[in-house]
Write a structure and sequence with these properties.
Order of helices and strands: HHHEHEHHEHEHEEHHHEEEEHEEEEH
Bound molecules: zinc ion
Helix content: 25-40%
Structural class: alpha/beta
Strand order of the largest sheet: 3-2-1-4-5-6-7-8
Distance between the termini: 51 Å
Largest sheet: 8 strands, mixed
Number of strands: 14
Radius of gyration: 20 Å
């Protein structure tokens, strides 16, 4: 028995995969976008399962509060100040040298996503923000690449497969273009590790099923709560007036989404989120208070955390001070304000 067949023997013994399924996995390319709690679970599963090529894209560095749930990283990665995508690539290359693993440090947006997913058979969502998922959804439907949505926060999470031409798309299930304004984020309400672990595992299982062409691919929206011990399936229908399903890729064409502008001479970046709607400062302040300094009046909310100061306006617009780095500003906005 060769090293390769021996490595996957427990998987090829499983009738749903077998030798033929293993060959299909070995000839597949998966792109994992976002390498936090979900992404580290997904990437480790796919690399260990012998997917031929795994690309891991993330824009962040590793911090101590990530280690509670982001299973691929350790304290040494933090001391070395490694970006998540690079640390993930290094760890996983030691796990399975027969897989082509590429870590990419990038902020995924409408301008680069088509290039980043070119040649992919499948996209896996390990993100913590809504906006990038809308780019994934557009690129998925435009190029016929299935994607597996996943999200986890607090003690709950959800997942759904989006298979172009077969299932509803992500925009079908979200009422407003970006899901309705200010969202809760892990940085404001917390998350316990079993929630992303289970969702990431379900996403990995769906990835393998999609790549081997299994008949048991999930077509429901699955929602779990590990604290309550609840698992629920929901049948979702395609929305008749969904623009994306009708071939209008508004997000790729940058008709929606967060836009950043460096404010010349002010050393500040403005972040505009046209879909934020009216922001409740009272609600936002309550979420932000445990993690930084917050003050507000009826015109603006000031928030200071980790040497950064942000000013948020009632329409969801924000000014991030003391930086000209638009990717950083967009990242802070997604992390603390939620898009
Ligand atoms: Zn749709």
């Amino acid at each position: 028995m060769s090293v390769i067949t021996d490595r996957y023997s427990r998987q090829t013994l499983f009738p749903g995969i077998g030798e033929e399924g293993q060959r299909k996995l070995g000839n597949s390319c998966a792109v994992v976008i976002g390498c936090g709690a979900l992404g580290t679970i997904i990437a480790t599963s796919l690399v260990r399962a012998g997917i031929g090529k795994v690309k891991i894209i993330d824009r962040d560095f590793i911090e101590y509060h990530n280690l509670q749930r982001q299973v691929l990283f350790d304290e040494e990665d933090i001391r070395a100040q490694l970006p998540k995508a690079i640390a993930a690539e290094r760890h996983l290359k030691r796990v399975n040298s027969s897989v082509e693993i590429e870590g990419v440090v990038a902020d995924v947006n409408y301008a680069n996503i088509e290039r980043l997913v070119a040649g992919a058979d499948l996209i896996l969502d390990g993100l913590d923000n809504f906006e990038t998922r809308l780019f994934i959804n557009d690129v998925s439907l435009k190029h016929g690449i299935p994607w597996v949505y996943g999200g986890a926060i607090s003690s709950s999470g959800m997942t759904m497969n989006i298979i172009p031409g077969e299932t509803p798309c992500f925009r079908c299930v979200s009422a407003s273009p970006t899901g309705g304004g200010i969202a809760l984020t892990c940085d404001t309400v917390g998350v316990i590790s079993p929630a992303p672990f289970i969702i990431g595992s379900l996403q990995s299982a769906e990835a393998i099923k999609i790549l081997v062409g299994a008949e048991t691919i999930n077509r429901d929206l699955i929602i779990i709560d590990v604290w309550e011990g609840k698992f629920s399936h929901f049948k979702i229908g395609r929305r008749a007036d969904c623009p994306t399903c009708q071939g209008k890729y508004d997000f790729l064409e940058a008709r929606f989404g967060t836009k950043t502008t460096s404010l010349c001479g002010q050393n500040a970046v403005q972040v505009v989120n046209p879909e934020a709607g009216e922001v409740s400062f009272q609600r936002l302040a309550a979420h932000l208070k445990p993690i930084g300094e917050v003050s507000y009046n009826e015109f603006m909310l000031r928030f200071r955390v980790d040497n950064h100061e942000m000013v948020i306006f009632p329409d969801g617009r924000a000014i991030v001070k003391d930086t000209n780095d638009e990717a950083l500003a967009r990242g802070l906005y997604a992390k603390y304000i939620g898009v």
